[in-house]
Design a protein that fits this description.
heterodimer; A: 70 residues; alpha+beta; Alpha-Beta Plaits; 33% helix; B: 746 residues; Calcium-transporting ATPase, cytoplasmic transduction domain A; 5 domains; 7-stranded mixed sheet; 27 helices; 26 strands; 51% helix
Chain lengths: 70, 746
């Protein structure tokens, strides 16, 4: 299991609500969290595999911007 | 030209309101008759035990406010608002009503007891006794019993009558006559008649009726306990993971896609699927199946079921009103509000009952005056009061609805959803049960048992895969499962057509392909040679369903699929046959397969190669012979047949329930439930008939006695107080009989 970090524009509680179904639906996600206090709105995800793209796809589909932090 | 005249499309809305103030079955009819003639109102059905009314109306013509105002005119209150609010508001009002009723009952008893004692034992021994009785009677009648007078007055203003009319009239007459004799005793005395007073009759009648009402109200709540139990299956608070943190939220804040944590013993709050964890879930409240079901990642879970040992994380897929549990609850409520034919008849009788009783009472009085012995006026008056009281049609009004409430509620507890009362009324008369094979007798999950290639080409399996992946047929799914392990390349399919009851036609690389049954071959003039036919026959003998795969005019492969018979099928069918019901099996499958399955489960009548549309015709033919036909199928491709049958039984499979076309839906597609449903129908109808018999019998026997037919022979005239007690007793006995159904083992 590895933790991946992404910068997003998930700004507030309601954004989190909108992105919740998309992220929960992903099979490879164990735990995820958005730090909305961080100006970069960091989404950290514990993935079972290394498929970071699936997270990016899901969040994009839910209508948010996302970029992986190296 | 009147172009300007716009035609407004009707906006038909159906809404269920809670109703307060309905105190007897005649009220239900009165509300129904009062609302029905309003322009724009299409349909009104009152459910008395549930205290609700469902109204279908055109929003362009009628507003909810108007309906409420109309109902108010005859003293009923409609409560709308969202489901929960309405329910709470209603429950509050009902609780207050029950409390008031109890206070009044106690008050009435406190005043009635001294009245009774004085009248029975101390008459002529106490100075001013009549004035004392008068003083004690006023609060009992006009405080404790005020609702009877108020309701009766409101009704009569609109030319309507109900049971309250009878109570108000009888006690009012008794009271008025007594007051007259108290104030002007000389008037009667001078005519040689003892100025008798009837205060005790009036107050004791009020007390007994209040007692009956109170007991009835309490028992009535119990008839809907099944629904209350189901509502109790919804948890109030839910723990879920929001933004990586565990939070506990009230139920209504859960959103779709939420990740919910279920600890051991937790009620599942939503319909969803397991994301993580392993556990067993007790689904007995929905399916009637006592054995907990193992659940692991990907499995569906249903709201209202209970997590047993393990911890689970589930994703919410259906919430609130959309969950199966909520749908079941509203379906059951609607069913309980529906009316069987027998009730329509009872309604008609009850509707004219009150005016007829008043007529009989007046007639009795007149006959007594004309030909009765002295003091004929006193006797006549007593008979009049007794007739009015004894004929109160309350038991009649409770007979059917209370039994239905209990019967349908019990069904829901057993995993048998009954759509309307009519189904319940018909099911027990079933003479022929038609079973669909796939999914009803068998598991409905066919799997490929063997594939015989008549021509070798490594591409064929990929082509089959490509074509079948476009089909939604269960057999196609099984074929896909079989071939999915092979590495397949995708083929561009240029045309695809699904032919119901036969199979698929597709075009690919300028070749025509067919995948389907023998009928499809015949239809397309594709000939199966003798040897290959023998192979296919052999597969069928083994109980396989054979699917043919053809390329142009050549049969390329024979695919054998088997769908295992359900474990309990044979036993369940034997049970149904033991009831004297003929069981038929209809299937679109071939003869050999059908025979093998039919023999396996002990069915002698079967028809194979039946198209879905022919199933309906087959049923119709039997119906034309005067038979009552029930049909059980999976509810999706059998919907026509299910609708045609007198009793349509849809075999639910987990969450996909097609309730529209079937009168009965079995939540757990267990064949054993069919005989249970028939048993339930039988027991409920028996209860209804017993109830009606007792209610009618009671009135028919008691009415002449009350009028005094036994007087000439036995000098016996029924005391009005006894009549009051008997009347209350009769409605309680009807209710108790209905509640007995709840404990009956089915």
């Amino acid at each position: 299991m590895a933790t991946f970090k992404f910068t997003t524009n998930i700004n507030c509680g309601n954004c989190i609500k909108s992105v919740t179904p998309a992220l929960n639906e992903l099979d490879n996600i164990d735990l995820w969290k958005v730090d909305t206090d961080n100006p970069d709105k960091i989404l950290s995800v514990d993935l079972d595999d290394d498929d970071a793209q699936s997270v990016i796809d899901a969040v994009t589909k839910a209508g948010f911007k996302i970029e992986q932090v190296d | 030209m009147s172009h300007s005249e716009s035609i407004v499309n009707p906006i038909i809305k159906r809404q269920t309101f809670r109703v307060t103030g309905m105190t007897c079955a005649s009220c239900a009819i009165s509300l129904e008759t009062y609302l029905k003639p309003i322009t724009g109102v299409k349909f009104v059905s009152v459910n008395y035990p549930n205290q609700s009314v469902s109204i279908e109306f055109d929003l362009n013509v009628v507003s909810i406010e108007l309906l409420k105002a109309k109902a108010k005119e005859i003293s009923y209150e409609l409560i709308d608002g969202n489901e929960n609010e309405a329910k709470e508001a209603f429950d509050d009002l009902e609780a207050i009503r029950l409390n008031t009723l109890r206070t009044k009952l106690i008050g009435s008893a406190l005043f009635s007891i001294p009245v009774f004692i004085i009248s029975m034992f101390f008459m002529g021994k106490i100075p001013y006794e009549n004035w004392i009785l008068l003083g004690l009677s006023v609060p009992a009648l006009f405080w404790a019993g005020n609702q009877f007078f108020i309701n009766a007055w409101k009704k009569i203003k609109h030319g309507a009558t109900n049971m309250d009319t009878l109570v108000a009239l009888s006690t009012g007459v008794a009271f008025a006559y007594s007051v007259f004799n108290t104030v002007y005793p000389d008037f009667m005395m001078s005519r040689g008649i003892h100025p008798h007073v009837y205060y005790e009759s009036a107050v004791v009648i009020i007390t007994f009726i209040l007692l009956g009402k109170y007991l009835e109200e309490r028992a009535k709540g119990k008839t809907s306990s099944a629904i209350k139990k189901m509502m109790g299956l919804k948890p109030k608070e839910v723990t879920c993971i929001r933004n990586g943190e565990e939070v506990t939220l009230p139920m209504h804040e859960i959103i779709l896609g939420d990740l919910i944590i279920l600890k051991p013993g937790d009620k599942v709050p939503v319909d969803g699927k397991v994301k993580k964890g392993e556990s067993y879930i007790d689904e007995s409240m929905l399916t009637g199946e006592p054995i907990p079901v193992p659940k692991t990642k990907g499995d569906a879970v249903t709201a209202g079921t209970i997590n047993q040992k393990g911890a689970l994380r589930i994703i919410a897929q259906k919430i609130g009103k959309d969950t199966l549990l909520s749908q079941i609850i509203s379906a059951v409520e609607e069913a309980q509000a529906s009316k069987p034919d027998i009730q329509r008849l009872v309604d008609k009788i009850a509707g004219i009952f009150v005016p007829i009783v008043i007529g009989i009472a007046v007639l009795t009085f007149v006959i007594w005056i004309l030909i009765g012995p002295n003091p004929s006026f006193t006797y006549g008056l007593q008979a009049l009061i007794t007739v009015l009281i004894i004929a109160c049609p309350r038991a009649l009004g409770l007979a059917t609805p209370t039994a239905l409430m209990v019967g349908i509620g019990k069904g829901a507890e057993l995993g048998i959803l009954i759509k309307d009362a009519q189904t319940l009324e018909t099911a027990y008369r079933t003479e022929i049960l038609i079973l669909d094979k796939t999914g009803t007798i068998t598991e409905g999950k066919p799997s490929v048992t063997e594939v015989i290639w008549l021509e070798e080409d490594s591409n064929y399996s990929s082509i089959i895969y490509a074509i079948e992946s476009l089909s939604e047929h269960p057999l196609a799914q099984a074929v896909l499962n079989h071939f999915k392990t092979l590495k397949t390349e995708t083929f561009p399919i240029s045309s695809f057509e699904s032919i119901t009851g036969m199979g698929i036609k597709a075009q690919l690389n300028q070749c025509n392909y067919h995948i389907g049954n023998q009928r499809l071959l015949v239809e397309n003039n594709i000939i199966l040679n003798h040897d290959n036919n023998a192979l296919a026959e052999r597969m069928k003998e083994d109980g396989n369903t054979v699917v043919y795969f053809t390329e142009n005019e050549n049969v390329v492969a024979l695919i054998g699929l088997k769908d295992e018979v359900k474990l309990d099928a044979k036993q369940a069918i034997a049970k149904i046959q033991a009831k004297g019901i003929e069981v038929y099996m209809l299937t679109g499958d071939n003869k050999q397969t059908a025979r093998v399955i039919a023999e396996q489960v002990g069915i002698s009548h079967f028809q194979a190669e039946v198209l879905p549309s022919d199933k309906g015709n087959f049923i119709k033919k039997l119906q034309d012979e005067g038979r009552v036909v029930a049909m059980a199928g999976d509810g999706i491709n059998d919907s026509h047949a299910l609708a045609q049958a007198d009793v349509g039984i849809a075999m639910g499979s987990g969450t996909d329930i097609a309730m529209e076309s079937a009168g009965i839906t079995l939540i757990h597609s267990n064949l054993d439930q069919i005989s249970k449903a028939i048993e339930l129908s039988k027991a409920t109808m028996k209860t209804i008939k017993q109830n009606l018999f007792w209610a009618f019998f009671y009135n028919i026997i008691a009415l002449p006695i009350a009028a005094g037919v036994l007087y000439p022979a036995f000098k016996f005239l029924l005391n009005p107080m006894i009549a009051g007690a008997a009347m209350s007793f009769s409605s309680i006995s009807v209710l108790t009989n209905s509640l007995r159904l709840k404990r009956k083992k089915i």
